[in-house]
Amino acid sequence: MRSTSAGQKQHGAAVGRDQIHRAIAANGRAYIKMCAMRLSFTKMHGLGNDFVVVDATRQPFQPTPEQARRLADRRLGIGCDQIAVVDPPPSKEFDFGYRIYNHDGSESGMSGNGARCVARFIADRRLSAKDVLKLKTRTSQIELHLLADGEVRVNMGPPRFEPGDIPLAAPSRQPRYRVALDGRGPVEFGAVSVGNPHAVIEVADVEAAPVEALGAQLQRHAMFPDSVNVEFMRVLGPRRAELRIYERGAGETPSSGSCASGAYAVGRLWGKLGEKVEMQMRGGVLTMEWAGEGAPLWMTGPAVTVYRGELEWD
Fold this sequence. Notes:
The chain is an alpha+beta fold and 314 residues long. It folds into 2 domains: 38-156 and 304-308, Diaminopimelate Epimerase, Chain A, domain 1 (Roll); 163-292, Diaminopimelate Epimerase, Chain A, domain 1 (Roll), CATH 3.10.310.10. 24% of the residues lie in helices and 35% in strands. The protein is built from 5 helices and 18 strands. The protein has an 18-stranded mixed sheet that branches. Residues 8-15 and 28-35 have low confidence and may be disordered.
């Protein structure tokens, strides 16, 4: 029988311990990686315009365009029109940062329905006890008021009509612009920025409007170097209008707060809408208020939580 010295036993024990430690470390890294791949989210909507809301104050979240597209995919991911991300405040004058990713993975500067959802999310998740929140997006500063009835009132800031602010490739500001599109005569539209670009087309019947055909062509047109949200509006009177929306990066959506704001601002500039208006979309109604140029435009509407969950994320 082969004997084993005390030194050999100690060496063997040391090797065994090293193997155990390496195994624990490897399993620990695998566990950390597994935890890092679990993305907590909340599914919300504002009048049918739906969002995946992520709290990036407690977990890092910086998706690539491909990851954002997969997350928004209704078959391969959670599914949404846009992804709304709550960030730590970029400076002491703001309560939070706010990022928006479109369905196609591109980043947007504003979403009004998303802003209302983010305000409700912040309150429901107790990230802040304030009734008035100040958020910073890539292009805008937003003030959100949480109302007692559960709705959210949003200060969208002053609408901007100068072509360079939209941006729009036009030599000067006009109440209406004209553009020739493939297979059609000249199309007239108004243009504005409310943190993102909007083109507004007045129609006699929103249901008969060629939303997809005209919307897609305008979004690709050289007049809009950053693409554009396209709204088809029927004015029913000074206090009410109907709207269909072809949203940048998402296609037709049942509602959009920023699109309703843009259409209202243009309709008011045209002298067709009053200081307080209800904008009727397929998803529901938003209330708009605007005193006129230089003043902030206010939007009021609901925000609803659908469910919360976790997603395996890589």
